[in-house]
Amino acid sequence: MIRRFSVSLAALAAAVFASFSHAEVTIGVTLGATGPGASLGIHYKNAFQLLPKTLGGEPVKYIILEDGSDATNAGKNARKLITEDKVDVVMGSNGVPSSLQIAQVAFETKTPFVCLTPISLAPDKLAWAFIVPQPTELMMGAVAEHMKANGVKTVGFIGFSDAWGDLMYKATEHHAAAYGYKVVTNERYARADTSVTGQILKILAANPDAVVVGGSGTGGALPHVALVERGYKGRIYHNHGTVNREFIKVGAKAVEGAIAPTGPLIVPEELPANHATKAVSLDFTKRYEAAFGEGSRNAFGGYSHDAVMLVGAAIPVAMKKAKPGTPEFRQALRDALENVKNVVGTHGVYNVTPANHNGLDDRARVLVRVENGVWRLMK
Amino acid sequence: MTGDIVLWLAQDGITNGAIYALLALALLLVFSVTRVIFVPQGEFITFAALSLAMLEAGRVPGTIWILVFGGLAVAAIEAFAILRERAWRRLPRIVLLYVVLPLAVAAAVWWAAPRSLNQWMLVLLVLAMVVPLGPIVYRIAFQPLASASVLVLFIVSMAVHYVLTGLSLVFFGGEGLRSRPFSDAKFKLGVLDISAQSVWVIVASVLLIVALWFLFERTLYGKALRATAMNRVGARIVGIPTVLTGHLSFLLAAFIGAFSGILISPITTLYYDTGFLIGLKGFVGAILGGMASYPLAAAGALAVGLLESFSSFWASAFKEAIVFTLIIPMLVWLSLKSHRVEEEEE
Predict the structure, then answer these.
(1) Which end of chain B has a smaller Cβ tally under 10 Å, C or N?
(2) pLDDT at A95
(3) How far apart are CA B308 and CA B22, in angstroms?
């Protein structure tokens, strides 16, 4: 009995000690490095190995949980991070449905949420959520500009039969009126499909001037290859989710000439010297490739990096108002995140305002094209 | 919708349907012989297709680790049984089959990977790597439960599926791979441009189906398989070793899976988890055939391929829903038709 008492006393002492020594900022992350989103999640997760252990002069602790690319798990993980680990900010995840779940939990628990995928939220939920990646409209705006400059009047769309495909379709449609084109097909396919013949035939029957593919990663290659095989001669545009080296490996010669918008960190070497993010993008890309292999550069790791940079910029402001691990600190961090200015990330320059919880501008997008089996900046 | 488009879609549907037909046959074979609903059937496709793509890229596929360690695990299980029964005579055979053979295949793959060999050699290597996984999986996961209920076997089957998918992600990564086509040739047939690759798929599937028919009708092993499928207890009474037929059916299933994987890997991008969905469509085909007859299962699978192709033209967003909804009326019809009580042996 006495022994049990002394053990519990020791545990109590440890707990008290822990809460006193709790001066570090805790960042909770949930990602899916397994499951259907694994090809993205692995990169997001890798980047956390390269991120600083102190931010704004404060020590930082990262807690990374695995959600298997499953929205329900992502929501559970977020709740666990917030209630059990008392994190000051949550980050995640590599899928739109997962991120929506986390946004809900963050909103309920009043915890700042730095979102790693482009999602759109109702204004009240947006209060606690900050979105790192470029909005799909911003990215596809570059595609729309290019299409207008090349006299494209009709556009065929084929995308994933999931939330990503929907987002890409909406973004393509969003610019239609302003840039004077018409979206004539809305075909869908799944990443695991073995054939897209039916969808491609429908697009060819509509005979559009250009085709926009709303896939991601190697999944974008299947319709592109099928279009080329069937003799389609128009331009084929992709999106920022597709830009990686595996896409070219899978598509081989057929994807030569594919055009896509992306963040500047994919081609930092080719950026003009006065480009705002050149130094940061180049540094991160170099470190990433040193750690994970030549040619492993990708947009997703950059989002993890930029998310942490945003939090890093907000921490010194929030520290003036409260101590980490308290609701007051979370509130202060949210307020600070809403007003960070000129944070240079790998993807662009963030100027967050209460009305715009993303804060990126045109500097956060470039167009790249596959030339001789490599993604090259389009001049 | 013009006549050309109908032809194109039909061609596409038949190519995919041929693959589904092979898988439907494998699933039906395994189910009727061992009563296992073999969910991991699709993993053999993935392993074979991705191993081939990796070998072509000059890398050593992780499949050899599954082979070697799976073989060692089986050898350990068998060694334990031998020790208990003091049946030393069985030892050399076990060592040869489950230790020496996997190691030899692994060594050959290791040697061949950086040497960019002829594609046919690589195909043989892939078959040598993937086909033995069938009996290995059977020995580890299913043989100890051979007389369990269909439901238990199904749950084990799900578990095996998750284990293999997980390993697949570790070995092949999250991004998709595609292997080189066996031939770039194209034939002009009326309005159609038929690629040599899809002719390959159809011809190879038909040949394999004929070979399977020959096996079942004309050989002793095939007859033993059929006998076990009809009545396990009866087969055992007349002296057919049901463990052997179990091994044999899994060997065939793995072979069919690997074969299908090699056939489709040049025509589509495969991911570490793609095989599951392809296997599932084969399963839908087998159900359409009533889960009882091989020709009906093959016809059902072909119907799935065609339906998939046409629905991807009309309503691409609902393609998967349309294909999988097909099971419901079929199951209703099957359950109305059958008056038998659920037969559970022993």
Answers:
(1) C
(2) 87
(3) 17
